[in-house]
Amino acid sequence: MAGKTDPGKIREQNEDKIGEEIELGTIVLADGMGGYHGGEVASAIAVNTILNHLHEYLPPLRTGAKDKGSGLGKESSVAKQAIAEANLEILSAAESQPQFRGMGTTVVLGLFYDNRLAVAHVGDSRMYRYRRGLLETVTKDHTLLQELIDRGMFTEEDARESLNKNLVTRALGIDQKVMIDIQEMMVEPDDIYLLCSDGLNDMIEDSQILDAIQVDGPNLQDIADSLIDKANAEGGRDNVSVVLARPLEAFPAPPKRWFEKVSDYFVN
User: Fold this and answer.
1) How far, CA to CA in Å, does 43 sit from each of 19, 35, 50, 206, 218?
2) Residue 152 reports pLDDT greater than 80
3) What is the CATH number of domain 2-133+171-249?
4) How confident is the model at residue 53, as a pLDDT?
5) Coil, helix or strand for 157?
6) What order of strands is seen across the sheet that includes strand 240-245?
7) Neighbour count for residue 67 (Cβ, 10 Å)
8) For the residues 132-136, what does the mean pLDDT come to?
9) SS3 131
10) What is the DSSP letter of 66?
């Protein structure tokens, strides 16, 4: 696992926050918004709350257990609950400190377990997957523009030039209840998973992301550094952050406690 965050070339404040916890098999990224340092506060609350929640609720799990209501793995349910808790913590902070009212944040989370990956996200921070030479987007942006694309009113090419591409339709810190997209997928050894704020994918094309992975790898920190450099070279108009993870081999859950099985399978 590796990550890097940078304020970019224009903004003085960095409202992005990243986190990586090898022992939890977790990567997370949040892109905050709001005046008077509110974005910084919201994204920090989100990442810290999520990681604290996972530290508390993942270890007791019996791996392989399913949530009866959703059919998802218990790990996915815990990830979703962690984001919901972060949402409430942001709202509480904004209520108690008037200068932070209106602050919010996107979030994208990856949780690796038992040869699987749970992906949860709110907003337009993305996850990409690189597998066997191909790069694909795992998440779908929660933006007004994406809704217009889905309705056939915009093409992907037109969308890149739109002035409204960053109008998010979901974020943490807006309402008491937040709609969280969550999905599960199988993981293969040597997959690379990339989380990024929109300061990356707004500045560079997916082909440039692919180039960084293929040319500047295999070291994940080198890839992270290259992606930040590429975004800043294109203008760096926003904060830019990335987190990467690559499992070296299969990581089936052993018949023992959950947290005793993840960290040995990830390196930089």
Assistant:
1) 11, 13, 11, 25, 29
2) no
3) 3.60.40.10
4) 98
5) helix
6) 2-6, 240-245, 192-196, 126-131, 134-137
7) 14
8) 97
9) strand
10) B
